[in-house]
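Structure representation.

___
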Amino acid sequence: MHGLRGLLALVVVLFHLTLVTPQLNARGLSRFLAIPLLHGYLAVPAFLVLSGFLLSVPLVLRSGQFSGGLRGFFWRRSVRILPPYYASYVLHLVFFVAMAWLLKRRGGVPDPMVDDQMLHAYTAGNLLSHLLLIHNLVPVWAGALGGVFWTIACEWQVYFLFALVLVPLWRRFGLWAAVLLALVVAAVLIEARARNWWHYITPEMIPVFTCGMVAAEIILGSGLLAHRMRGWHWGGITLGLLGVLVAVVTFLDATMSPESLGQGAKAAYYHLSQRVIWISDLLAGIWIAAVIVWLTLPRLHRAAEPNTPPDRVAALVLCLLEAGPVQWLGRISYSLYLCHILSVFLVMMVGTRYFGPGHGQTLFMMGGGLILSVASSWVFYRVFERPSMTRETRQMFSARSGHS
């Protein structure tokens, strides 16, 4: 699923660039054309589903056993996630200090966003929370240094819940028991957050992660239910779920007044009530899990029954995901997610200072920001991410990999 991961990372980059590009947040045609990009936050739950799927496939094939046991699982996750994360975090710390120094030296007006980061991001509590990956527990910590690192903390914590609780429950009582527990935990955390008892950013990502586990079980599971579900029309299910997702998100967006959207981020998602904000994330997770099943099952069917008529739409989507540039994006997707916000900040400061509102500013910020994000992430991947990979991971991410 490298190609899908690459496209999702690209969606996140475009989403953040759209948020900071003035012309795309004004009223009129530009705002209308930007609407799909302003929903790029839905790529985050999609990432969690992919993670749950890729980690669950080996478990389904090995009857719920981790290769190398729990120690092996946590070692592989640590080597894969932590070195690039810490390198990127240090890079962000240096970036904002350098920006503050440069702005002061040039005698320019201090940038509000840089000032805000300098005020909140360099406290002892913030630094320690990022070191321990618990910064998603406090809003100020989570919003530090561009506010993208909270997802890494969330995923890191879900790994522990997955290995220590969900998988043992899956082995003993079945997958749906694990899914039910994830839903209960998320519901409790959502209500606690709404009542200001306990803050945990997007607890719905816990059941979203289990959507990937369900997809793996449907595709490869040996149970009767999984066997029956493999016979369902997943193309139609995927299309239907997409319609539900679009309808629900559109309805939630419509509950926000223009005055509300004028205060802070222009995406309605950030202004929703704590008790409903989870709905779009969970629906997106269910939909992307159905997409994974829809794209994967035809290959298994063709392998088992070569005369099976192909799903032409699924084949076309797979062809796109397996294209060379998309596969390349997939290989650098983690680095792209970790580093792109620096490029977003840079083009935002330059674009708003040296370009007046108009098409030139929009082209510079969107086009230049995208090129700079991808190019700098490739450098980061070569310098920091790839050297930290295990041999098996490097082979999986090699250019010869044919997996989408």
